[in-house]
Amino acid sequence: MKTKLTELLNIKFPIIQAPIGSATNPVLASEVSNSGGLGMLALSWKSKQECVDIIRETKKLTSKPFGVNLVLAWNQDERVAICISEKVPVISFFWGDSTKYIKKLKQNNIKICQTVSNSKEAIEYSKKGVDVIIAQGWEAGGHVQGNVASSVLIPSISNKVQIPVVASGGFTNGQGLIAAITLGASGISIGTRFLMSNEAHIEDSYSDLISESDENSTTYVKNLFNVGWENAPHRILRNSTVKDWEKAGKPEIGERPNENEIIAYDSNNEPIIRYSDNNPVKGTKGNLEALALYAGQSAGLITDRIPAKQIVKQIIYEAKNTLEKIKKLE
């Protein structure tokens, strides 16, 4: 399946595994890349040595292209330098301006992806030299930059830029892939479906809650799970913390129910307080249901946890079947 994205990134299928924060790891990223997509690592909060180790471990597991995602709400100068020295094929930037990195990365033949939430940003970054625009719709899980639905955002952007546009938010299967391409995208970025892969670094109870959800199970909040990342709107499963906050009238920070209560501990036995941006990754113990359960609206389409390579294979199978159905309408 050839598109402008597959040709640019030298991948077989127009599928990018969204970085999904602490849930991603070398095994997941390499499995996606080995299956024909683009696996992605999330290194925004890792130490310099951790970044080097994770990148090198991924290289051991795949000879295919993979990417590193960096959140620009934090200074990423050192991590960008590491990606350059380690010859990472692709860097994806989120939540901030990547302008100062573009020239240096292009000099080192690293492909640059920039997430945007509107067509104005897409045009600006296209002119600055980024290689791929990731257009994030409001349906997306985790932290969400904009508030426009993908069905409107994708054609709005793809009609105004010449570089590949990747649809993000609400895309989880083959039908979604064909829909995104029809809207003008060259591929899709998938988070929640890969969060529900066997390789994703999350606790089983988290995946169980996603599998039990439907299309109405998530909610978009502007600054609820804010401890660790303030003023960053996000989409999550509506759990007990969300429901208690809603029952209390959605009070402001400082007046929310049970603030500063320790509800869990991470894999290093560090306490996690209510309203922290921590999600239940492997090794987390405690009241996991009350933590930030990041998930997109596409969670309602996912009922099982399967290997990443099977996810890629299934998406392509569904896409081909969808195209066959469309042909029969002619």
List the helices and strands and how they pair.
Elements: H1 4-9, E1 15-17, H2 26-34, E2 39-42, H3 48-61, E3 66-71, H4 77-85, E4 90-94, H5 99-107, E5 111-116, H6 119-128, E6 132-136, E7 142-143, H7 150-158, E8 165-168, H8 174-182, E9 187-190, H9 192-195, H10 204-211, E10 218-221, E11 234-237, H11 240-247, E12 262-265, E13 271-273, E14 285-286, H12 308-328
Parallel strand pairs: 1-9, 2-3, 3-4, 4-5, 5-6, 6-8, 8-9
Antiparallel strand pairs: 7-11, 10-11, 12-13, 12-14
Helix pairs in contact: 2-3, 3-4, 6-7, 8-12
Features:
330 residues; alpha/beta; eight-stranded parallel sheet; three-stranded antiparallel sheet; 12 helices; globular
Word description of this protein:
There is one protein chain. With 330 residues, the protein is of the alpha/beta class. It contains twelve helices and 14 strands. It has an eight-stranded parallel beta sheet with strand order 1-9-8-6-5-4-3-2. The radius of gyration is 19 Å and the shape is globular. The chain starts with a helix and ends with a helix. The mean pLDDT is 97.
Strand adjacency order, main sheet? 1-9-8-6-5-4-3-2
How do the helices and strands follow one another from N- to C-terminus?
HEHEHEHEHEHEEHEHEHHEEHEEEH
Strand coverage percent: 15-25%
Radius of gyration: 19 Å
